[in-house]
Amino acid sequence: MWVPESPGGKDDLTFSAVLLGGSPTIPVATGIAILWVRDPVAMMNASRTLADAFPGRFLLGMGVSHKSTAVLRGHEYEKPLAATRAYLNAMDAAPFDGHPPAETPMRVVAALGPRMTALAGELADGIHPFLSTPEHTAAAREIIGSDKLIAVEQGIILASDSEQARAAARANLGRFLRWPNYRNHFLRLGFGEQDFENGGSNRIVDAIYAWGDVDAIAARIAEHQAAGADHVCLQVIAGGVDEQAALRELAPAWFAG
What SS3 class is residue 36? Predict the structure, then answer.
């Protein structure tokens, strides 16, 4: 179970503890815990605490988020790559007076560009990209190497009507098209400014989101896996059936694969 974080919402690490405590078996990952929300020692020691309390069931997904997030929390959003490197190094140097976990939990970075992906390969255990394509997954695998985790987040819309599915995708995509990080990411993927107009072209919507019936969704997951993904996290996008119903419908195909 992947848990997102917004700068003014529930604390991701606290909420993870609540969810982990509510199940004896389900693993929980933060997707993502925002750097600007807590200092490196707080991030590291919270993850150590969760690893000690719930061995083998917590994964720390983390990242720089966006300029608006940093500003809202009183930080300057400059040189995100350098900021991430300094943060990861500070986490590794963090003191800890508590009971040490048997293993420090894995951490993955919300990396989209090649330089952040390379940094994650150097100082973290992998990446957790969103709004990407199987081609991006393949390129990331080339950069990060064979021994690192690629945990892709894939937006899905369980609806076979093209107008309904694409309308739902555009409603979700709109805010990302306003953020420079994602616009730059889409440009690197080969899309142009014309693909950003009117909420997103059919070309970008169909490449970024998986929509259709269960077989169509399963096919996109398989494409990511064939490209090098170790794990595919599914985010159900509003506009199709509701989230729980979609996941229940997908579960037999997911577990069969």
Answer: helix
Per-residue pLDDT of 196-231, as tens digits, reads: 999 999 999 999 999 999 999 999 999 999 999 999
Token pair 């309390």: residue: 53
Tokens coding 142? 């080339």
58-82 b/e (C-beta count within 10 Å ≥ 16 → b): bbbbbbbbbbebbeeeeeebeebee
Indicate whether this model's pTM tops 0.85: yes
Q: pLDDT grade, residue 240 (50/70/90)?
A: low
Domain ranges of the chain: 1-110, 154-257
Nearest residue to 189 (alpha-carbon basis) of 110, 135, 116, 142: 135
Give the Cα separation of 103 and 22 in Å (integer).
22
- Helix 180-188, helix 162-177: angle, nearest 10: 120
Residue 108, strand partner residues: 61
Q: How far apart are CA 108 and CA 148, in angstroms?
A: 9
Q: Is the peptide bond before 143 cis (omega within 30 degrees of 0)?
A: no
Distance in angstroms (rounded) separating the CA atoms of residues 48 and 245: 34
DSSP H/E element including 102: none
Tell me the CA distances in angstroms from 165 to 93, 160, 209, one per residue in order: 47, 7, 9
Residue with the two structure tokens 């608006």: 68
